[in-house]
Write a structure and sequence with these properties.
The structure is a homotetramer.
Chain A: H1 2-5, E1 7-13, H2 18-31, E2 59-64, H3 70-80, H4 86-91, H5 93-100, E3 103-105, H6 113-116, H7 129-146, E4 149-156, H8 168-171, H9 173-181, H10 189-199, E5 204-206, H11 216-225, E6 228-231, H12 238-251, E7 255-265, H13 268-273, H14 276-294, E8 300-307, E9 314-324, E10 330-340, H15 341-361, E11 366-367, H16 386-405
Parallel strand pairs in A: 1-2, 1-4, 2-3, 4-5, 5-6, 6-11, 7-8
Antiparallel strand pairs in A: 7-9, 9-10
Helix pairs in contact in A: 2-3, 2-15, 7-10, 10-11, 12-14
Amino acid sequence: MSKTNSRTGVWIIGALGSVATTIVVGCEAIRRGIAGTAGLVTETSPLKEIGLVEVGDLVFGGHEIREGGLLESAREIARNARSIPESLISAVAAPLEEISKEIRTGTALHCGESIQKLWAGAPEAPVRPVEAAERLGAEIEAFGKRNGCSRVIVLNLASTEPAVEPNEVYDDLEGFRKALEDPESSLPASVIYAYAAIQGGHPYINFTPSLGASIPARIQVADARGVPHMGRDGKTGETLVKSVLAPMFKARNLKVLSWVGYNILGNRDGEVLSNGPNNLAKVRDKDDALRRILGEDGLHTSVRIDYVPSLDDWKTAWDFVHFEGFLGTKMSMQFTWQGCDSMLAAPLALDLIRLTDLASRRGEGGLLGHLASFFKTPTGVSEPAYYRQFDLLLEYARSALKDMSTPRKAPSR
Amino acid sequence: MSKTNSRTGVWIIGALGSVATTIVVGCEAIRRGIAGTAGLVTETSPLKEIGLVEVGDLVFGGHEIREGGLLESAREIARNARSIPESLISAVAAPLEEISKEIRTGTALHCGESIQKLWAGAPEAPVRPVEAAERLGAEIEAFGKRNGCSRVIVLNLASTEPAVEPNEVYDDLEGFRKALEDPESSLPASVIYAYAAIQGGHPYINFTPSLGASIPARIQVADARGVPHMGRDGKTGETLVKSVLAPMFKARNLKVLSWVGYNILGNRDGEVLSNGPNNLAKVRDKDDALRRILGEDGLHTSVRIDYVPSLDDWKTAWDFVHFEGFLGTKMSMQFTWQGCDSMLAAPLALDLIRLTDLASRRGEGGLLGHLASFFKTPTGVSEPAYYRQFDLLLEYARSALKDMSTPRKAPSR
Amino acid sequence: MSKTNSRTGVWIIGALGSVATTIVVGCEAIRRGIAGTAGLVTETSPLKEIGLVEVGDLVFGGHEIREGGLLESAREIARNARSIPESLISAVAAPLEEISKEIRTGTALHCGESIQKLWAGAPEAPVRPVEAAERLGAEIEAFGKRNGCSRVIVLNLASTEPAVEPNEVYDDLEGFRKALEDPESSLPASVIYAYAAIQGGHPYINFTPSLGASIPARIQVADARGVPHMGRDGKTGETLVKSVLAPMFKARNLKVLSWVGYNILGNRDGEVLSNGPNNLAKVRDKDDALRRILGEDGLHTSVRIDYVPSLDDWKTAWDFVHFEGFLGTKMSMQFTWQGCDSMLAAPLALDLIRLTDLASRRGEGGLLGHLASFFKTPTGVSEPAYYRQFDLLLEYARSALKDMSTPRKAPSR
Amino acid sequence: MSKTNSRTGVWIIGALGSVATTIVVGCEAIRRGIAGTAGLVTETSPLKEIGLVEVGDLVFGGHEIREGGLLESAREIARNARSIPESLISAVAAPLEEISKEIRTGTALHCGESIQKLWAGAPEAPVRPVEAAERLGAEIEAFGKRNGCSRVIVLNLASTEPAVEPNEVYDDLEGFRKALEDPESSLPASVIYAYAAIQGGHPYINFTPSLGASIPARIQVADARGVPHMGRDGKTGETLVKSVLAPMFKARNLKVLSWVGYNILGNRDGEVLSNGPNNLAKVRDKDDALRRILGEDGLHTSVRIDYVPSLDDWKTAWDFVHFEGFLGTKMSMQFTWQGCDSMLAAPLALDLIRLTDLASRRGEGGLLGHLASFFKTPTGVSEPAYYRQFDLLLEYARSALKDMSTPRKAPSR
């Protein structure tokens, strides 16, 4: 049936995580009309008019390294973060159980100790990266077929891997292929997943700070194959505010002397980040935009992330901005952001899925630069100011809108 | 001499106020190379490349209702707010004494009790508004002649007057002219000053929330005469941040439920605002942009201003933003802005002078819409988002830059 | 049965309010072992060792002017404030329904418009205060008998009444009696309830800022009759912090120049307080301790309360303390308190019930000064510093403990 | 002359630091009646009535490892922190120059790299600790004689040394003496200074987190010799607030889940602390009181200190307290402390000098436990709550007051 054939599948890496669970609960609740669409950028004008897939029509599956199911995970969220109401979960308990059957065991190769501790069941057998990728790819493929999906979008929501130093292996396609075959290679899981996705022709979105497809070799392949992809690291809270506020100081010629951010959080992500190397990966991304907006000259910045278990999903950030105005007078601004991380991330991830689905249907491939505003470190986009990034999306939407009203020529590729 | 003939005069209403004093101290310090230009928007690219008058070349005078001189006023700032260094004031003591001689007694007609309390010396004689305007206008005129200025820009920095209810008198030119002649009329001082300025052909900038030229009848006259003018209420601190942050919530489809702001300040402005009616005028302006950006639907906003003497010029604001995200989860952001008001306002006022001077030289008249980003309630401009307003200025600058590089035709007027 | 005869009844004025509902839900949950005792001062040493009544053994009833029942009220809290978990409410649904049957219609005489708006059903018939008191008293009496209570403690949790100006009527017992009989008298409901309670020999606790028993004439009667009573206004959040922090500045000789507090809240209490006169009653109490701790000299304080509906029960307060240290240097401290009001108030009210019950059993009558630390304006206690007030309670507990270990003489009454 | 013979000398280790400079400027300004005594605990009742030495009568000298003089140091403070007014410094310029002549070169043995970088001039010659101590002691002795002091109080204000692991060398007097003679020993400078002071019979106060006299062996010697001494680490800001607030949560049975503190500062102390091991020493002291007040059970705490140069002396701290109340509801409190460190520390150091001088005159020796409230880690006092510590001082003052009014017997030693 044509209806069935046009379904869009979503394959989530980290399928039992808090963000993934919130996505699935949210979609099922919206489908039933018992939840609103606040937080979804794609439900605002003009984005809601460009023919995006309905969130209630998405089909979910994914990889996970922990045990359990979505219902259990949702109830844990209700109990600990008190964010999703218990009654809402009860109302979607049946589909959560159903979707849990589409979850397969993933891989935690070279993810660092903090992540590997989460691994459930028998230890992962050592395999060459390419073998792992083939197995993962086959599972994605089977999911799409089983559910009659015309396309499957792969979304990385797994915990942050340790920061990887720039490495020539990843710059060069040949080197990368060798690494894939090398049983001793240290290719991290996120790269293997990204390889599996793109190799299978599946659009790929990296919502985490992990490498994923953001390496020159991966980008080359994806572009060559015309697979839409974008990353890295969803811009959900403190960094969003930074990229909104910093251009104000610049525009007003108020010299920012210091901008320090202190982030505390208590979810599984926080636990993984409390590990030094994983923390570094995150901190690097959070600070970068600031330096690009304000310039390096005399600017002091720092970002700290501490694990505070009692906060659970309520990521809290305190930022202190010290700036110099007229006649050298030092002034300050401070803000405290208290956001429920999964509730901020889930709708953005859904936005990305819908927009990537559209890009795919419109025949667009390679890096989706117009999605830059969703990411802390948008691959291939140098503009760091939020509103300028958002303008890229608005322009895209306006152009899509125009295309809808004019007879379409066949897509160019 | 052509040099002398092209000097730009600046006539400040409220010439001994904290902002006015900071402007003069700053210009003299910059001229001597002992202070930098932080806080001046016009010292950033591309604005600094469009041929603006040097701040060190401005000539100052003004009206004031209090007694004293600029040196005394500067020392009071150093002592109370500890913002301007004592040694900087000593270095410009001589010019401060000199400029103080160019200050004349202003008017406080219908400014409300809080302002009239500040009046020094013998009580103001009751006069018809038109007589007051003629006297004020003659003093501005004489200042310009005495100092060989080719133009005098009039800048309103006087304390906020009580809010005035919409009044048909101000809508209609005929009614306005009658009010000017009526000894019983309640035309407030700011309108009389604005009338005097525009009648004399002097560009006029209203940095305060008072009415000034922002009444339909005034705008008509100014436009008819081709006099450049703009207002109202400099956007220096908390309101600036609001107009930067609010569009972020809108763009992210995070439903703002409540946005409350609590402002405390201790300078003369605060003292005047502690009076109910004057407070109202200010509060109304601070809240307006928010409602226009976020929409009225279900939004609760409030702004409080309290007078806290010990803060002196250190205006401190706490804002609490309560918003709803995915699945109805309520989250919050709060910020504290601690700015030294005069240090924020003075460079912006200088920016406005320089840009108005340029407009005047370029033969532009009427409302200067491209200056919207400097104001809380930009007359005639409906765009409330800061960065969109700032784009208007950037476009203007780029266009001015292009004009500079192409042979100029004679200005159109 | 002796067990039945020694039961302690609790009669709550404002029985369907958020605090009352939380008290009942909490007691039922603790009784069933499905909730802990955090927040209960009487569960810490040495207070937990002095033979207090178990919270699970209390019997509840009360007066209310709104319609509805406790289960409905509890579910409203779960839905709006997301504070009480839905599953906890389900577990105690049956007793909530049962206790709701013990709620009678109260009075809203002279409570001001904001409170009278809440009145459900047919308008209250105008009656002389004494008649109202007799009716209310009879209902309390009947509740006690029906439930086999050896004593009934009356607890005022009703919304704040408008501030009442000092009034000689309340100073003099004779005048007070006349007012009771006078159909034109303006005696507010809280005074009538307090009269009814004390006249019936029931210990009386006023957790609100309303007058209640805190008038000289009432105190005289209670003392004469040996009825234990105490008030006013539970010290739950911001004021608690103030009474803890202010003595620090005093001890360190840091001169507090200004202390301003900005409180926002969205529950029914907030709605009532948004009305000017009711607000005044509250603000006066919140500010008093500060002036008594820090002295009047040169101190500027202010307290603002604004109604912000979206916050519901999450009372949020921002306090800014400006102080002067060595060599006149001005420094500051600011804090934000984000507390769920009912969750803070309910355990304190339970503490007061337990301690009043003990006092009653020990034959203590009149003002219970050792309970001062629980109140913003402890009647008859001038000590404003929290820890000094808390020491009074600790001393009392130690003395009670000593009495327990020594053979008791018969109580004096 | 008897007047001269009773003068009290103050020997400051770190004599050109910001706190030392502020102390000297302050004393000279108070002596001349051009500054008040805010911040001095000893100027409040009853402490100001117990016959303490006048701050204007103190005589200053000290050791320092950097070059320069007090006037230069004071002007640097005025320029960078804008805390001391320039005009105040000019008024005491002459005595600052005079007192600078009493500064001698100290030692930086085993102070860690961060401190040794500050060393001016030719590198310090390697000497045995005992030799260094003898030289330092002789200089203190000579200062006292030269200025006719009847006693010299030694005050450690030098930068924080790296944390030292518990070491049996310091537990045992014999081992300690060997270490003093050992050219290879790693005894840090603070211990050498403390040895020199106590060996010379000079009362010793350690206002820093460095070891100083706080090692068992040192304490034994001081006690044996009857030399008054006390330490460690002045409690000036965030830690003070912690030790005031934490007991409130305890008293209210609000379970603190997490208490995290983020400190940023930019003075020389901050620079030294940015070095890992020095930082650790500080952090350990800041956190200890919290755990002792609240208990270990389930409590998560952390303290971060970051160096933010632009803040200079304006130490800013953000603390977030996450606590659980009734029915498991999580609530929070956050505070921001913005204090000028030297302005807070200087008067406390003066308080300690005055009180130590009194103890010395009253013949009291050994640990001065009644000074506990001034320290983060009061040696020998286990009580962590601020107000309880302060009560020790009040009791001492009351007892001293009583002694003054009764005929004194000869001191017991």
